[in-house]
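go over my protein:
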Amino acid sequence: MAWKKRSPTRWPANFRTERLKMSDTLATIATFNSDHEAELARGILQSEGIEAFVFKDDCGGMLPQMQIIRGVHLKVNRQDEKRAREILDSD
């Protein structure tokens, strides 16, 4: 049985532009010292119907001390930014 040569995985033509669009539509509303705090805040926002995302750079969990250095960012869509800030400020 001969092996078929597979074509390399190709990204969609608009992959880079879609990624740029996504970063343009998100706003950082808070920065925390740990992912636990950020996840709690994300849960509060999600319970209010706001989609939230946690961004952190801790080398895949191998260097959690980097969370303190760089912070853990909580982001929401720009159209939800004002309401999300109001919800987090009220708690």
User: Anything to note?
Assistant: Residues 54 and 74 are 5 Å apart (CA to CA). The chain has one domain: 19-90. Strands lie at 26-32, 52-55, 72-77.
